[in-house]
Amino acid sequence: MTDLSRFSINQMTVKQLSLPELVEQCVRLSVPGVGLWREPVAEYGLEATAKLVRDAGLTVTSLCRGGFFTTDSWLDSNRAAIDEAATLGTDTLVLVSGGLAPGSRDLAAARARITDAIAELAPYAGERGVRLAIEPLHPMYAADRCAVSTLDQALEIAERFPSSQVGVVVDTYHLWWDDRAPAAVARAGAADRIHAFQLADWTTPLPAGVLTGRGQLGDGAIDLRAWCDLVDEAGYRGPIEVELFNDELWARDGGEVLEETVGRFSDHVGRLG
Amino acid sequence: MTDLSRFSINQMTVKQLSLPELVEQCVRLSVPGVGLWREPVAEYGLEATAKLVRDAGLTVTSLCRGGFFTTDSWLDSNRAAIDEAATLGTDTLVLVSGGLAPGSRDLAAARARITDAIAELAPYAGERGVRLAIEPLHPMYAADRCAVSTLDQALEIAERFPSSQVGVVVDTYHLWWDDRAPAAVARAGAADRIHAFQLADWTTPLPAGVLTGRGQLGDGAIDLRAWCDLVDEAGYRGPIEVELFNDELWARDGGEVLEETVGRFSDHVGRLG
A178 contacts in B (CB within 8 Å)? Predict the structure, then answer.
């Protein structure tokens, strides 16, 4: 039988489920962890969500997401996200850092701005027991969503701060193509900076807008087992979160998709270290 | 007045034009170079194309494309492409190397296969005065079109062979996001391995399939002038080819698109070294 002790379902994978439905399905399928998103949490109520999840015995493995540091309201918005993470009982806030400033073509400036914003936020997060997890996004998002495109770039920023305050997200969808990623994973693990590990498969053709084509585990090009081994060898022992944005999965019954995802995790990840 | 002496139009940018129409429009607009594609050349006739272009005084700056080394017929197909390049009078065959082998999830194996195939082809190309130009494609094409995703990876392969036989393509669309690309451009230039330089802008949202969203110069996120400076500082003095695949441009009058492209080149690249 598959060990699900480190399995976590990111809420967006089954966004058709309300929070009570999500919790009910997790309990039914012995899924111990959930990654939550700020918007549905706000809709259900922050305190109500914290209680719902806690009463069901679930662990909140991460909150998505802070970041977007090129918007005017980034400071207030990110402080609120840190507070929400603390209330939900998770120590990990995922950062999608934002792309180019409006009208700019200067990626280096965007990365510098991200570093400055994290410097402003890191102590605030640390005081609340929340770690900022910089997520490098696939280079196809560099212009409009995240100027941090490689794990090396994310680490270069994170390493300026204590690992208790700032780390990185390793997400197979974003990093699978990069031959430098394995060395960066080892470096991140040795410094205790892998704050989240997320799985999704790479399927083609990509949909328009390239946001909703994260493939179900096993359907695509990524050797997911090899990535789990890599992260394992780097010393990571935390949750393994499955985060899929996929129009076809969203059109189906959420409980059925969650059950399928547990099965795919069993088939393509299997035994954990 | 803009110096067009190094400007070249890749045929795909205005694929709505037949070869005679393309040549006529180039002459009208004082465009000195064209990058050609095998399929339309074969349709018009190889020898007929060579004569048409030569008689008009145009330079063929490159032929697209060889590669796709994971197909069964790669060897015959690539030898034919080399022969065609020689007949057309261009010294540069662009390689789009192919993605994962069918059913495989092993990118390293795909890259090794590409290296082996190039080893097989390089002497054949060299004997015919044709250089194989490895094009790193954006990481979003790694699975299905090209497992060579960065200029560093392309150079690592190219450097095993004489620069008279194997080099690289620097294409802004594929490389603009990569903070390691500037150093790789310098390295490639110092070794005389920049065999082609292509421009396209990065516009979002990307279309479904992500093949036909290469943006008109100036419409997107890339600092094209900075890329020209980079390649210039690396010692490159060859043609600058504009290669756009863009459904909106293809739906318009081809001569008008070519004229617009010359204007954009003037606005966003301007004076050349």
Answer: 139, 149
